[in-house]
Amino acid sequence: MAGFDSLKTLLVLTVWGACAPLNAGARDTGAVGNPVPSAHVHPQAQPPSQATVALQRMARSSLPFEDKRDFEESKRGFVAAPTYTEIKTARGTPAWNFGRYAFLDTKEDFDSIHPSLQRQAVLNAQYGLFEVVPGRIWQVRGFDLSNITLVKGDSGWIVFDPLVSQETAAAALAFANEQLGARPVVAVVYSHSHIDHFGGVRGVIEEADVKAGKVQVIAPVGFMEAAISENVYAGNAMIRRAMYQYGMLLPSSPFGHVDQAIGKRASSGTTGLIAPTRLVAKDIEEIVVDGVTMVFQNTPGTEAPAEMNTWFPQFKAFWAAENITATIHNIYTLRGALVRDALQWSKYINAALYRFGPQAEVMFAAHTWPRWGNARIQEVMRTQRDAYANLNNDVLHFANQGVTINEIQNVYRLPASLQQDWAARSYHGSEEHNSRAVINRYLGYWDGNPATLVPTSPRDSAPLYVEMMGGADKIVARSRELYAAGEYRLAIELLNKLVFAQPAKPGRQEPARRRFRTGGLPEGKLEPAQQLPRRCA
Question: What is the pTM of this model?
Answer without folding.
Answer: 0.87
